[in-house]
């Protein structure tokens, strides 16, 4: 699986997860691609008047790094939109963790976070959920 496909699949999984948690969701296709693109988050979710901008990372390494440029671009977008920035890290076989920019350590090259800290400070999806959606699978008469 190519790096792009892995990321795109994780983004779609995140959208489904957020939707089932009761959020209205939208994926920003092509986010982060190319030098001439407008910086946007990977996914936007709304719930009861609250706007969340999600940057999705599917990373199996023990450390997650986000460049200063990417983090600053995301923060600018969030300021324009009045959204809360959330970094969503899909850790293989351990699920999603949701962090804020402030949870990351700032170093010379990037914002960094290790798995251990992600599990300490990161939230689970239930943090965002008001009421999980249920679907009626019976056919309408």
Automatic annotation (TrEMBL):
| This protein's record includes keyword Zinc-finger | no
Q: Which GO terms describe its biological process?
A: DNA recombination; DNA repair
UniProt keyword annotations, A-Z: DNA damage, DNA recombination, DNA repair, DNA-binding, Endonuclease, Hydrolase, Magnesium, Metal-binding, Nuclease
Q: Which Pfam families match?
A: Hjc
Question: In its keyword annotation, does this UniProt entry include Calcium?
Answer: no
Q: List the catalytic activities from the record.
A: Endonucleolytic cleavage at a junction such as a reciprocal single-stranded crossover between two homologous DNA duplexes (Holliday junction)
Q: Which InterPro entries match?
A: Hjc (IPR002732), Hjc_arc (IPR014428), Restrct_endonuc-II-like (IPR011335), tRNA_endonuc-like_dom_sf (IPR011856)
| Cross-referenced Gene3D superfamilies | 3.40.1350.10
Highest taxon, organism lineage: Archaea
* Cofactor list: Mg(2+)
Query: What residue ranges are annotated as transmembrane?
Result: none
GO molecular function terms here?
crossover junction DNA endonuclease activity; DNA binding; metal ion binding
Name used for this protein in its record: Holliday junction resolvase
Record the organism.
Candidatus Iainarchaeum sp
